[in-house]
Design goal:
This protein is of the alpha/beta class. It has two domains: 187 residues, NAD(P)-binding Rossmann-like Domain (Rossmann fold); 165 residues, 2-Layer Sandwich (Dihydrodipicolinate Reductase, domain 2). It is 33% helix and 23% strand. It has twelve helices and 15 strands. Strands 8, 9, 10, 11, 12, 13, 14 and 15 form an eight-stranded mixed sheet that branches. Strands 3-2-1-4-5-7-6 form a seven-stranded parallel sheet, sandwiched between helices. Strand 6, helix 6 and strand 7 form a beta-alpha-beta unit. Helix 1 crosses helix 11, helix 6 runs parallel beside helix 11 and helix 11 packs across helix 12. The radius of gyration is 20 Å and the shape is globular. The protein starts with a strand and ends in a 24-residue tail after the last helix. The chain binds nicotinamide-adenine-dinucleotide (NAD). Nicotinamide-adenine-dinucleotide (NAD) binds next to helix 1 and strand 2. The site of nicotinamide-adenine-dinucleotide has 28 residues, from helix 1 and strand 2.
Amino acid sequence: MLRVGINGFGTIGKRVADAVRAQPDMTVAGVAKRTPDYEAEIAHDRGYPLFAAEDERPFAAAGLDVCGRVRQLVAASDVVVDATPAGVGAQNRELYQDLDTPAVYQGGEDADVAPVSFNARANYDAAVGADAVRVVSCNTTGLSRVLAPLDERYGIEKVRATLVRRGGDPSQTGRGPINDTLPDPVSIPSHHAPDVQTVFPDLAIDTMGMKVPSTLMHTHAVNVTLESVPSTDSVRDLLADEDRLLLVPERLGIDGAGKLKEYTRDAGRPRGDVWENCIWAESLTVEPLADGRADCYLFQAIHQEADVVPESVDAVRAITGVADRDVSVRRTNEALGIGRGLAGLDPGHSVRPRDAASDD
Ligand code: NAD
């Protein structure tokens, strides 16, 4: 059993802790919190050993037992997943190195926090044996998962993606209310393109970012110029075979992130989490270009609070070298119920919209 410590028990950390607990080969060594807030109460109620990031006294005053400070948690862990706020992870690096504990950082950290930027689908093997990895951000994870199979099967000449980003998470009341549509960042390419290149160093990609007053999910409008001319059906079949991509059938009547989240809550997903990319099946379109190339288009929704969670679990296995990619991804998926559709339905094959291109 791998003992996994989780430093930071907020939006991402609490989900990673629950996902680690669900794995047959991992146990939660404990979680570290800075403040004794409602999430500390949840950690306590779920029986996770609780450690103080700094001072234990506020926890004692709140009636919460702590097992010690974060240093003790790291020392008791085979691996630590750092899910502290962006930038704090880099400050913790010395602690992890000092105790010789491999670390999994999150995408809010700069790429140089770790030697490898990680996505299980795209570059699992690069992380095997590393002493630290950074699981790329929610948006970069969402792009990496869809680009990896397209690149492997058809070759990619160029990616152009517009990322319509949620303005904040549901708990980030400090970010709202806002009522505007912001080019964010206004400069082009947005920081997402270079982030994707930390996973695919040779990929030609431009991204544009926006922020909108929503807390639900990000929405990506993706255009991939392929180096060959597959049919729309072929691309649909390729993507439908990927467990962490869901093709949302037209018949469900899901017109946006609101219904997607409602559906996953109805289906009993924990916290209504959507660990997979949700690609609108009708949006998937391939338009042939001259000289053996084609433009592939799609819309996808990315649940920012959830998609990096299975990746973080796989990153733990990758850096400890306990499993290869196929074994790890299968184990993670089975433990979480990924691959059975949003409600245990077969998600991909039920809709066949118009085919715009010739066959491969
Ligand atoms: P969060 O603010 O929800 O949670 C951070 C947690 O860390 C809180 O429990 C906080 O009390 C605790 N904390 C604060 N300072 C600490 C310290 N010094 N030591 C230990 N714990 C401390 O943040 P989050 O949204 O979970 O983000 C965590 C990381 O995941 C960031 O790198 C972020 O960029 C990345 N990420 C976030 C999202 C998202 O949508 N929320 C998506 C993907 C990646």
